[in-house]
Design goal:
With 97 residues, this protein is an all-alpha fold. The protein has four helices and no strands. The longest helix is centred in the last third of the chain and has 27 residues.
Length: 97
């Protein structure tokens, strides 16, 4: 990195200097650091949980926009999401045991 920074030409623009330094740092980081695989911590997490949470979040946004029956709908979705995720995790733990 030092060699790359020392051989770099200075420009009249601070923005261009910053982009050059940033690129050098990113290239050096790629060269020295290997990519790590992502560790999945929640093996029980699946598409059903994601879908339930997405629906709950949509209901929450509607609840914030208008204060009518949307609150009740949000509470139903929240309960369904909680039960879904809890049951998935419980089932996964039982299978693991």
């Amino acid at each position: 990195m030092n060699e790359s920074l020392n051989t770099q030409e200075e420009t009249s623009s601070v923005e261009q200097d910053w982009q050059n330094i940033k690129n050098i740092m990113l290239e050096t980081a790629k060269d020295t650091k290997q990519l790590q695989t992502r560790i999945t911590r929640n093996e029980w997490w699946d598409d059903e949980c994601k879908k339930a949470i997405k629906e709950k979040n949509i209901a929450r946004e509607k609840c914030h926009q208008r204060r009518t029956r949307a609150i009740q709908e949000y509470e139903k979705k929240r309960n369904i999401t909680t039960k879904t995720c809890r049951n998935k995790k419980k089932q996964w733990l039982n299978n693991k045991i």
